[in-house]
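Deliverable D2.4 — example input (structure tokens):
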């Protein structure tokens, strides 16, 4: 049986770039460096967000099994504090280099090519090295690289194995790019090729990042803007590279080491993959032992593992992973050599406001479609009483127990006690050949209602679907089929027949009254739904739209005292089937459930 299907829709709008950047328009005052820098405006603070813009659920059938497929449109903005570096040969990524702010969202930003002043490069590591800083007369690629090599040459060469492990589920190309802190448009070359999705099956996917940071090279922050530039450079030389929406920035530090990106794809469930990946990699990185009941990652169902490495061999990492857990553990325990570190990421600061780290918005809109079997889509089933199953009765066909068809016996409906040993009369052929339970008219040990647990309805959304009717035109109104013994507002759920032409739902206080065109003496499918955000709604039969809504009725039940199922007045009613969920089920779920009942009872 198909357990879960994931499909992706690539309806995407990408928006990557510097979120910056206001400023005055027109020609800047190029008489000072401060004035030129100020003309670029400021880098605005980027606020991460993850919003659901829309969600639609439809019913799909695969073979003989029904699935609910929910398409969710996400709008995501991330603001990583460091920029990933996938090109170790990029000639502009070095500490102290000046960059054009409007290009920070690109894979390789544009530099500001003006002659520079001096500065100091510092290796931020405590390992007993005799010299961790170098002064530079002029900041340039060659002088910075030479200074870094001079520092490394006197440093202790062995780096302890300190891998950090993170993992993230990726359901689309866009989510994959976001997990790498880049836009989909910036994924190219070896990264895209090495970690390309396999499309031959419906895979669940997780991206694993194993990072071993060797050291960070930092550029000491200048105390004034003019310290960035050579003494004979004029503000006019800087002016062409700065302007409204394009503030200058500089690389304040670069982190070196090695990193492995591993894409794990499998037809196992998301939960199974997550548990396996977490146990395999986190435990291996920590030097622990994997549990005997844990599935090692390479043994997952239909697994495919792809790798991309910076500062290490991808084939070696992949070989370690696909051999066994001990091999992976030994591999991650190996220390690195300081002189083999590659640039992994870099931090950018504003030239104008050097105390501020610059973040660039990595934004995306994308659709994710998740399909689950219908039976697995309901999160909180409460009770399900059906006349054709689980009705225990005495010799007079009086009901002594109505079993919960959701297979939780703690929610069986039973006589309320107090000398009452039965409630409800079992009637065969009550609705188009199928049985129902008649409530009302109870005397002595024969009651008019059964008791069921009501606590599940408190402080919760809920949905109740009932196939029910009144028995005669002469009866006491209102007669509820779900009710309680509360006397204060919001202490009892009341669902039932309000008058000869209305049904109602309420919380012992404000309620929703619903007109019914058909006589109440005819069996009908009623759906009552409460949501703390959408209020109360009622549907009749298979209608696509509710016949009544009360969006203002959002106060939930505080208590459900003495919860009962049957007849609140003793007037005769019949229930063929009734089920409840502790959630406001969606329209697709409601349509499916109601269609099953309409077909079953020929209504």
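Example output (designed residues):
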């Amino acid at each position: 049986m198909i357990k879960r299907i994931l499909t992706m829709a690539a309806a995407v709008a990408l928006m990557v770039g510097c979120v910056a950047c206001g400023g005055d328009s027109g020609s800047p005052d190029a008489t000072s460096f401060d004035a030129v820098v100020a003309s670029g405006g400021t880098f605005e603070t980027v606020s991460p967000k993850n919003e659901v813009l829309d969600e639609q659920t439809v019913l799909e059938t695969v073979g003989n099994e029904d699935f609910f497929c929910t398409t969710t449109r996400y709008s995501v903005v991330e603001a990583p504090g460091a920029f990933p570096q996938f090109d170790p040969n990029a000639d502009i990524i070095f500490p102290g280099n000046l960059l054009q702010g409007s290009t920070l969202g690109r894979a390789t930003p544009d530099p500001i090519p003006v002659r520079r002043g001096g500065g100091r490069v510092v290796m931020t590591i405590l390992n007993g090295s005799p010299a961790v800083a170098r002064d530079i007369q002029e900041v340039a690629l060659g002088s910075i690289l030479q200074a870094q090599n001079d520092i490394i040459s006197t440093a202790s060469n062995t780096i302890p194995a300190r891998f950090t492990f993170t993992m993230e589920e990726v359901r689309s190309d866009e989510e994959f790019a976001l997990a790498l802190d880049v836009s989909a448009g910036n994924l190219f070359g070896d990264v895209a090729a090495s970690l390309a999705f396999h499309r031959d099956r419906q895979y669940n996917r997780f991206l694993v990042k194993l990072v071993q940071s060797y050291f960070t090279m930092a550029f000491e922050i200048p105390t004034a803007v003019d310290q960035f530039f050579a003494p004979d450079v004029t503000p006019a030389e800087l002016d062409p590279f700065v302007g409204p929406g394009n503030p200058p920035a500089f690389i304040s530090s670069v982190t070196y080491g090695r990193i492995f990106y591993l894409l794990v794809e499998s037809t196992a469930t998301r939960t199974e993959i997550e548990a396996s990946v977490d146990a395999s990699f986190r435990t291996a990185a920590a030097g622990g032992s994997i549990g005997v009941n844990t599935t090692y990652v390479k043994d997952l169902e239909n697994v495919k593992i792809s790798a991309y490495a910076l500062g290490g061999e991808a084939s070696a990492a992949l070989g370690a992973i696909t051999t066994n857990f001990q091999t992976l553990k030994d591999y991650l325990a190996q220390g690195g050599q300081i002189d083999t570190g590659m640039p992994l990421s870099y931090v950018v600061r504003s030239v104008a406001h050097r105390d501020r780290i610059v973040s660039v918005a990595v934004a995306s809109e994308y659709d994710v479609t998740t399909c689950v079997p219908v039976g697995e889509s309901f999160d909180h089933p409460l009770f399900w009483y059906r006349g054709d199953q689980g009705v225990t009765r005495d010799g007079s066909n009086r009901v002594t127990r109505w079993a919960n068809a959701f297979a939780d016996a703690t929610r069986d409906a039973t006589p309320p006690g107090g000398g009452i040993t039965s409630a409800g009369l079992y009637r065969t052929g009550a609705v188009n050949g199928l049985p129902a339970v008649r409530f009302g008219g109870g005397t002595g040990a024969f009651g008019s209602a059964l008791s069921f647990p009501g606590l599940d309805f408190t402080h919760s959304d809920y949905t109740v679907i009932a196939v029910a009717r009144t028995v005669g035109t002469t009866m006491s109104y209102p007669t509820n089929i779900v009710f309680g013994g509360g006397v204060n507002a919001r202490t009892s759920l009341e669902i039932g027949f309000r008058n000869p032409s209305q049904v109602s739902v309420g919380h012992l206080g404000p309620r929703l009254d619903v007109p019914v065109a058909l006589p109440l003496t005819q069996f009908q499918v009623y759906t009552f739904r409460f949501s703390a955000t959408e209020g109360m709604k009622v549907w009749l039969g298979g209608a696509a739209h509710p016949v009544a809504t009360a969006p203002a009725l959002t106060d939930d039940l505080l208590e459900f005292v003495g919860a009962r199922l049957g007849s609140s007045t003793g007037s005769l009613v019949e229930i063929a089937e009734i089920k409840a969920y502790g959630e406001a089920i969606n329209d697709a779920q409601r349509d499916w459930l109601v269609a099953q009942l309409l077909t079953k009872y020929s209504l």
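The first helix runs from residue 33 to 39.
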